[in-house]
Amino acid sequence: MGKEMRFDSNPSSLHKQNYVFCVKFAVSFLLMGLVFRLFFSDSITLSSLIETTTSPLADQKTEPLPVSSPPVQTLSAFDFPASETQTSANETIKCDIFKGNWIADPSGPRYTNESCHVMEAHQNCMKNGRPDSGYFYWRWSPRDCDLPKFNPRSFLDKMRDKSMAFIGDSISRNHVQSLLCILSQVEESVEVYHDKEYRSKRWHFPTRNFTLSVIWSPFLIKAAIFEDINGVSSSEIQLHLEELDRVWTDQYNNFDYVVIAGGKWFLKTAVYHENNTVTGCHYCPGKNLTELGFEYAYRKAVHLVLNFITGSEHKPFVLYRTTTPDHFENGEWFSGGYCNRTVPFKEGEVDMKDVDTVLRNIELEEVEKAATVGSEKGLKLKLLDTTQLTLLRPDGHPGPYRKFQPFAEDKNAKVQNDCLHWCLPGPIDSWNDLVMELFVNADKYD
Ligand SMILES: *[C@@H]1O[C@H](CO)[C@@H](O)[C@H](O)[C@H]1NC(C)=O
Ligand SMILES: *[C@@H]1O[C@H](CO)[C@@H](O)[C@H](O)[C@H]1NC(C)=O
Ligand SMILES: *[C@@H]1O[C@H](CO)[C@@H](O)[C@H](O)[C@H]1NC(C)=O
Ligand SMILES: *[C@@H]1O[C@H](CO)[C@@H](O)[C@H](O)[C@H]1NC(C)=O
Ligand SMILES: *[C@@H]1O[C@H](CO)[C@@H](O)[C@H](O)[C@H]1NC(C)=O
Ligand SMILES: *[C@@H]1O[C@H](CO)[C@@H](O)[C@H](O)[C@H]1NC(C)=O
């Protein structure tokens, strides 16, 4: 089937998508829904991973898995909004800090699994037995300007009496852990809050009175999720496309800095509600509902989120982070896909997967529109466009080392790979170089 099919990166062409495309995507999204259910859920044990690979599929009459068909790829010709930066001579140059390459960095990781105490087990690749460490020795280097390495001391000084929040799914939690690990070189944080499931947390840095939160809101909008602690779903997600998730909006006025992100959870099977009626769904065969497509829901959600942000009296500095790429090769998560590369790709060596292109284009368009509206009201809203640069790091995922010593008992053990989240230390640390540059040195980019 349409293996060679491409669609260009202009989302308006999505409306012209044909039947083959729909079928292929519908099938793969059902399956992808599972990986995200697994990987974006918390407290997953290996046994639950194995159980959930079969049971949810069993009650959905799907075709056989497209085991080895490679992901549909698309050309990566994007035009990024360029930022301005300054040289020491105050001469402004055009610099897109999201375009460049990973360069060798012999100085290595900024922290270790010994110095950082907040690292969750799934991210602790060294402890879990990952044998190679070459992936520590790379630094993101924009093509047209220097990106300073994150300076935890000056970051914390800048954040005195401030409050910062990361809002999103488990990738946002991955990101906040990286930040906590980097900051722990200068000051240890004190955990002051966690929710029942340990998905949302808050830390305080007493010396600077800096508060850092992570808020688990995978859809950013109101969602009823029927998953148990192991990520096993008992019913379709019910998504309310015209209501925001109050878990973050209720706290929004407390924050001075916000890094917000969405995306991957929209690939799951879900029923869409608007104005108290069911208007359709995404991948719900047998339900006699209109397939509206995940991009329909995601665009509405991003729009709603950004409307709230631009309409709010409270004006924190907001970064919207773009979707995060995965690197499953020769299969997907459920069919033996793995990610055992040990060096980064070079710019242009890899194409973005279609889903990421779709999600990111929505993000780029909606953020650009909202930033224009926001700037008239004095709101700082910027993209944290990490998709493309992170796509170049297939070497930074836990792979089988999400689990402690997966091959200790059997060298040939079959282990579910995690090619979506990031090892700590790892490439995601560089996201914080970008966050710091955008937040702390924002004036350079105005
Ligand atoms: C360059 O920038 C510095 C600091 O922003 C300022 O003090 C200085 O006057 C500027 N020089 C010129 C030539 O604009
Ligand atoms: C850190 O990683 C090393 C392997 O590099 C491992 O031996 C050690 O147990 C780990 N320590 C912690 C606290 O995770
Ligand atoms: C700490 O920072 C918060 C704002 O994040 C502020 O409301 C509070 O007064 C500060 N506390 C002290 C002791 O300065
Ligand atoms: C829902 O209601 C709002 C106004 O109340 C309207 O603008 C919108 O078009 C409605 N949406 C749908 C899908 O009917
Ligand atoms: C599916 O929905 C349509 C419109 O709501 C209705 O006319 C049709 O009878 C339904 N089909 C089944 C099999 O329920
Ligand atoms: C990755 O795994 C595949 C399949 O086991 C193997 O053929 C390949 O050589 C491995 N690559 C690296 C870099 O280890």
Task: Give a topology summary.
Blueprint: H1 19-39, H2 46-58, E1 83-86, E2 92-95, E3 100-104, E4 138-142, H3 152-158, E5 163-168, H4 170-183, E6 190-194, E7 201-205, E8 210-216, E9 221-224, E10 237-244, H5 246-249, E11 257-261, E12 270-274, E13 277-282, H6 294-311, E14 317-321, H7 354-376, E15 381-384, H8 387-391, H9 428-440
Parallel strand pairs: 5-8, 5-11, 10-12, 11-14, 14-15
Antiparallel strand pairs: 1-2, 3-4, 6-7, 7-8, 9-10, 12-13
Bound molecules: 2-acetamido-2-deoxy-beta-D-glucopyranose (6 copies).
Beta strand count? 15
Please tally the helical runs, counting DSSP H or I stretches of 4 or more residues. Answer: 9
User: What Rg do the Cα atoms give?
Assistant: 21 Å
Domains counted in the coordinates: how many? 1
**In what order do the strands lie side by side in the largest sheet?**
6-7-8-5-11-14-15
The residue-averaged pLDDT reads 81
Short structural summary:
With 446 residues, this protein is an alpha/beta fold.
Keywords:
446 residues; alpha/beta; seven-stranded mixed beta sheet; four-stranded mixed beta sheet; 9 helices; globular; binds 2-acetamido-2-deoxy-beta-D-glucopyranose; transmembrane helix; TBL_N; transmembrane; membrane; TBL_C
